[in-house]
Request: fold
Amino acid sequence: MAHKRLLDPHCEMILQEFRDNLPLFKETRAFLDKRLKEVLGEAGLILAALESRVKTEDSLAGKLELKGNKYKSLKDITDIIGLRIITFYTDDIAKVSTAVEKLFEIDWENSVDKRKLHEIDSFGYLSIHYICSIPDFPYRVEIQIRTVLQHAWANMNHDTGYKSGVEVPKRYLRNLNRLAGMLELVDEQFSIIRTELTDYRRRVHALVASGNLSDVPLDGDTFRSYMELEPFDALNKRIAAVNQAEIHEVSLLPYLPVFKRLGCKTLGDVDKIIKEYSDAAYQFASFQLGLTDLDIMSSSIGPQDICIAFILKNGGGRVGLKVMLDILNGESENNEMMAEVIEEQASSLPFMNK
Reply:
């Protein structure tokens, strides 16, 4: 139940103005929430959250009870509608800020960039607070921008009573400040790591495109870049021609751990296996497809049969085949039976008898 506030006639008039315009405030909040999500999404920004709210009547009454003589009218209260944009990374704050500044007219006199305060215990309060004017809307709006760690820290501090005006014993204050410093460092490092990973992926992409595959270590990023070169495309088309089959494209990333299991350390190792075992893979695929009338095949048939040929030619036998099938399909007794069938089918093919 809301606390009964003791307000003078002037404050009651402001409160009544709020009640009269509440439908407008709710409609505007919804519009701003949607518009910001659209604009930030178009800019390619991935947010942790975007929160919005209309101030409650009880909260407004409490504000008026404390300092109602400060406000001439409801228009002087800048946070009737509030939005909070929470980013994952500190460097995204600048990008979000630029988008907000382009979208709205900023009341710079009443806006605050708390990142510039540099207080020793200010980590959870580093958010930007914009006071914005909206076309055809007579009231101002507050927009806060902060990282997810800053948001979590501010909420934890609020929950513990820190910054509430109650004096905190020095030993607790010191520990809180130490934690704030650690979280600020974590926030910065996340952004640094993301930047470095982005640079690494650009370098990898350039190396792959240049064809210097032996210089490129085999990992998730490099394998993805290598797949863009469609290294199995020629083999798949050759196999599909056996039955004039249509090729259904699927992700080939599940074969990354298989190639690693085969001893590949670089993309050059993978490329060498593809070149050396494509003919053997074609022989095995042709044998299998000749027993069917399939007219649709998966694009994974090429890498699958190359790995099968490599395993069998290098003495891995059914044990090696089962390991491959376990990686691709999950461990199952059926994989052992499939490995036995594959080994038997391949035993009479020319590539196994050279």
Notes: The first helix runs from residue 9 to 42. The chain has two domains: 9-164, 230-353. The chain has a mean pLDDT of 88.
